[in-house]
Automatic annotation (TrEMBL):
Protein name: SEC14-like 5
GO CC annotation terms, alphabetical: cytoplasm
Domain GOLD intervals: 510-661
Domain CRAL-TRIO, residue spans: 318-483
Matches recorded under InterPro entries: CRAL-TRIO_dom, CRAL-TRIO_dom_sf, CRAL/TRIO_N_dom, CRAL/TRIO_N_dom_sf, GOLD_dom, GOLD_dom_sf, PRELI/MSF1_dom, SEC14/CRAL-TRIO_domain
Pfam families attached to this UniProt entry: CRAL_TRIO (PF00650), CRAL_TRIO_N (PF03765), PRELI (PF04707)
Top-level taxon of the source organism: Eukaryota
PRELI/MSF1 domain segment(s): 7-178
Region Disordered, residue ranges: 190-232
Length: 668
């Protein structure tokens, strides 16, 4: 079979702030050998010609390269790699075109390179350089992938080195007093040889030093440019200095991907072209795979058009409730000068539709994008406080809305998140993370830092990423945070479920992890956990959805017999299981023993806990309906018990629960 691997490269425009003729003099110093480029061992002129008027000069050379792959070359019985390079200088137009291709392995690997030097269209005293190349590997003795990696590594490592070499020889010329070389002019008489044409080359050293009055060694005023158009020689092209200054440090191949994707948009996309930093985000999100990034960007542009995102700040007004209860906002900067925001997300999900939340997110993102462009900040840090999050927030429509928001942000605003700091994550958070993490890009997931309890305080916590004087005071910092808290949302404002459900049936997104159960008067709900090793940890997490219960933990050496008490449940009940395990004939202290003190749990509470086991055997978790204690003749019932009895409208409590057994060494 024929294996075909193709790689392409397109450079940004690199600008030398020197006249074309002086740059050409520096370029010619690379031949016939160049100690500044170790891989270039030497060259030999194969053909040379000039036009009659001397304006065009063509040189064809054979260049000898020492490729850093000795084992591979020895297997191919080749010591060096040879390239054919053709240079065409047009002194009249002030351009140099360089075309090169490999002579070695030409029937297996095709390398084509084209470079050009030309005059900057806005400043004739500056010179522009562009470079493009392609690598087409047809077959190479089964080492195609290795050849591709070696070739791309060596090529990209020599790209920026080439500019450094030109600048090195420019400084050398200037140190010799050569700062100006006259431009080509037509011969005065037919057939007369123009000495100025030959000034570039061996005769360059004869140019007098005092002729450097054109200021080639000076940087013209107004050199700090606020936009790409101010530097780039063409509005449709990107300048290397602009990329480094405003888009950050990119590898040559990353620059190439940006330029090629940008060029493709200019040629095919009708309408507003995204800013360069936006295009770069999509490339980063797809690890600079240009095909995947192009597909992602096209889908996002379609989405923006469909929802009129570019006009949302002018056309959309948030509902009054969203302004009143929106919990979060922008808050100073982190240590890396990223914009810092603080959010409390889950409370929105009860009172707003997915559409209104997405509109708010789109609006916030546009505000953020405008802010980024002003301060040259490329990403933001988000601080999320999850205090109070419990299983009740894992509500089907709420989780659905959260996943939709994540999907929209990931698809249309990639790589805007610099870091996500989650503090006071409760024990239920791993369940929520299990639900949402598959929808988050791997690159984004690596930016998450999660702190449980008070772990965010002290070294290794928030102070490593945010200065203490901007950490909100409620998280132990010195800053009074003005981010809106939103307040307690009245239940009267809650949205109805998008899919009406039986109110007696608790349906969770986590139904494969969490279980629902009924606790009846005289019929507690019990589950058994068998422990084979003494040193284990039983953890539990449950919510009381209705009524008050008493939670207990017991241990027995005997295996209980499971039995469903279906007779005690209404035949139409969908509220969950009710299982009793402790036989009525068992005696506490003889057949089984209590491991944890009884815990009274009120309706609406979320309980998390753990127990380190000391012995193997069977551990029974029990939820029992809580009722007022019997009164003696000299005592009155407690007020809390009386109120609790009034609140319970039926002899049934409802819970949702989750438990897990961990080895003690794995427990944190």
């Amino acid at each position: 079979c024929v294996i075909k691997m193709v790689q392409k490269y397109q450079s940004p425009v690199r600008v030398y702030k020197y006249p074309f003729e002086l740059v050409m003099a520096a370029y010619e110093k690379r031949f016939p050998t160049c100690p500044e480029i170790p891989v270039f061992l030497g060259s030999e002129i194969l053909h040379e010609s000039r036009s009659d008027d001397g304006s065009i000069h063509i040189i064809e050379r054979s260049c000898k390269l020492n490729v850093d792959a000795p084992r591979l070359l020895k297997k191919a019985r080749v010591e060096y790699v040879f390239f054919i390079q053709k240079n065409t200088v047009n002194w009249k137009e002030r351009t140099l075109r360089i075309e090169a291709h490999n002579e070695t392995f030409a029937n297996r690997v095709v390398v084509l390179e084209t470079c050009s030097y030309s005059v900057h269209p806005e400043n004739e005293e500056w010179t522009c350089f562009e470079q493009s190349a392609s690598l087409d590997i047809k077959s190479f003795f089964g080492f195609e992938s290795t050849v591709e990696k070696i070739a791309m590594k060596q090529y990209t490592s020599n790209i920026k080195r080439g500019k450094e070499v030109i600048e090195h020889y420019l400084k050398e010329l200037i140190s010799q007093g050569i700062t100006f070389i006259p431009r080509w002019t037509p011969p005065l008489e037919s057939g007369q040889k123009d000495e100025q044409t030959l000034a570039v080359g061996p005769g360059v050293d004869d140019v007098p030093a005092e002729s450097g009055a054109r200021g080639a060694t000076k940087e013209p005023a107004g050199n700090s440019c606020p936009s790409a158009e101010a530097v780039s020689p063409d509005a449709d092209k990107l300048d290397a200095d602009y990329i480094e200054r405003y888009l950050g440090q990119l590898t040559p191949m990353q620059e190439s991907c940006l330029i090629r994707l940008r060029q493709w948009l200019q040629e095919t996309h009708k309408g507003k072209i995204p800013k360069d930093e936006h295009i770069l985000r999509f490339l980063r999100a797809r690890d600079f795979n240009i095909d995947k990034a192009r597909e992602m960007l096209c889908q996002s542009l379609t989405w923006r058009k469909q929802y009129q995102v570019d006009y949302i700040l002018q056309s959309w007004r948030p509902p009054a409730l969203l302004d009143e209860y929106y919990t979060g906002g922008w808050h100073y900067q982190d240590r890396e000068q990223r914009v810092l925001s603080s959010f409390n997300t889950y409370k929105w999900l009860y009172i707003f539709t997915v559409a209104s939340l997405l509109s708010k997110c789109r609006s916030s993102r546009l505000d953020y994008d405008k802010f980024l462009f002003c301060v040259h900040c490329r990403s933001w840090t988000c601080l999320v406080d999850l205090e109070g999050l419990n299983m009740r927030h894992l509500w089907r429509p709420g989780v659905k809305a959260l996943l939709r928001i994540i999907e929209v942000v990931e698809d249309n605003y990639p790589e805007t998140l610099g870091r996500l700091l989650i503090v006071r994550a409760p024990r239920v958070f791993p369940v929520l993370w299990t639900l949402v993490s598959p929808f988050i890009n791997e690159n984004t997931r690596q930016k998450f830092l999660i702190y449980s309890g008070n772990n965010y305080q002290g070294p290794g916590g928030l102070v490593d990423y945010v200065d203490k004087d901007v950490i909100p005071d409620f998280l132990g910092g010195d800053c009074v945070c003005n981010v809106p808290e939103g307040g307690l949302v009245p239940k009267s404002l809650y949205q109805a479920d998008e899919e009406p459900e039986n109110p007696e049936h608790i349906r969770l997104w986590t139904e494969t992890i969490y279980h629902s159960a009924s606790v009846l008067k005289g019929a507690p709900h019990e589950i058994v956990v068998e422990i084979l090793e003494g040193e284990s940890v039983i953890t539990w997490d449950f919510d009381i959805l209705k009524g008050d219960v008493v939670f207990s933990l017991f241990h027995s050496k005997r295996a209980p017999e499971t039995g469903r008490k279906e007779a005690t449940l209404p035949s139409t009940s969908l509220a969950g299981d009710n299982t009793q395990l402790i036989d009525k004939t068992w005696v506490l202290g003889v057949d089984y023993s209590r491991m944890e003190s009884p815990l009274v749990c009120r309706e609406g509470e979320s309980i998390q806990g753990s127990h380190v086991t000391r012995w193997p055997g069977f551990y029974i978790l029990q939820w029992k309906m809580h009722g007022p204690l019997p009164c003696s003749g000299t005592s009155l019932p407690r007020v809390d018990d009386v109120l609790a009895s009034l609140q319970v409208s039926s002899h049934r409590c409802k819970i949702i629960y989750y438990y897990e057994v961990l080895a003690s060494k794995d427990f944190r």
